Amino acid sequence: MTDSVRSPRAFAITIIKRMGVSPWHMDFDDLISEGYLGYMAAQRSYDPGRCSFSHWAYIKMHGYILSYLIRKSSKDHPNFDDLIRKPYTPNPESLILDSIDLQRAMSKLTPRTREILWLQYRDGLNHREIGRVYELAKSSISSIHVKALRVLRRELL
Q1: Is the pTM of this model over 0.70?
Q2: How many CB atoms lie within 10 A of CB 8?
Q3: Residues 106, 121: contact at Cβ < 8 Å?
Q4: What are the φ/ψ torsions at residue 112 (nearest 5 degrees)?
Q5: pLDDT single digits (tens) 43-68
Q6: Do residues 25 and 56 both lie within one domain?
Q7: Distance, CA of 144 to CA of 141 (rounded, Å)
Q8: How does DSSP classify residue 98?
C-alpha cells in the first residue's frame, strides 16, 4: 500500500464530523470503533487497481459508520436527521425521503437496502461506489435500488 492512512482513529473522526455528528454524541466512541472495523475491512479487500487505499478506506469506513447509525436509528426510532445533518439537493426521487411516513415505509425494506438508499441519497454515492462498499456489482445495486423505490412508492402513495 503506497497510499496509506496515517491514523485510522483520526480518519474515522474526520469522517464522522463530515457526516455532521457531534463529538459529544453519546455513541461517538462506538462510531470510531465502527470506523476501525471499516478500516480493517478496507485492508482485507483493497485492490490497488481500483483506487487509492485512502479512498477505499474512506468508502469502507463511511459505510460501516453509516450502517451503525442506521441500525441505531431503526432501534431507537429517532428522526434520522437528528443523527446526520447533511444538506442535499432534492430531486424527484429524494423528495420521498422528506415524507412523514418515511420511517414506516423504510421499515418494509431490509437493513441493507435502507443503507444503500442512504448512501445514494444522503451521501451522494453512485451505484458503482455503493457496489464497492458491499462488494456487489453495479447492476446488483441498481436492481436493489429499483425494487426499493417500488416498495417506497407503494407504501407512500
Answers
A1: no
A2: 19
A3: no
A4: -65, -40
A5: 888 888 878 888 888 888 888 888 88
A6: yes
A7: 5
A8: G
- pLDDT at residue 103 is higher than 60: yes
- State the CB neighbour count (10 A cutoff) for residue 37: 16
| Cell 428522526, located at residue | 79
Interior angle at CA 83, CA 79 and CA 87, nearest 5? 95
Residue 5 has pLDDT above 70, yes or no: no
Q: Per the structure block, which three cell numbers stand in for 46? A: 483493497
What's the pLDDT tens digit per position in 112-156?
A: 898 888 888 777 788 888 888 888 899 999 899 889 888 877 876
End-of-domain residue from the set 86, 109, 126: 86
Highest average pLDDT, of 21-25, 72-76, 112-116, 120-124, comes from 112-116
Range of the domain at 54: 1-86
Q: What is the 3-state secondary structure (H, E, C) of 113-137?
A: HHHHHHHHHCCCCCHHHHHHHHCCC
Residue 87 contacts by C-beta under 8 Å, 6 or more apart in sequence?
Answer: none
- For residues 109 and 34, membership in a common domain is answered with no
Q: Say yes or no: 124 and 143 in one domain.
A: yes
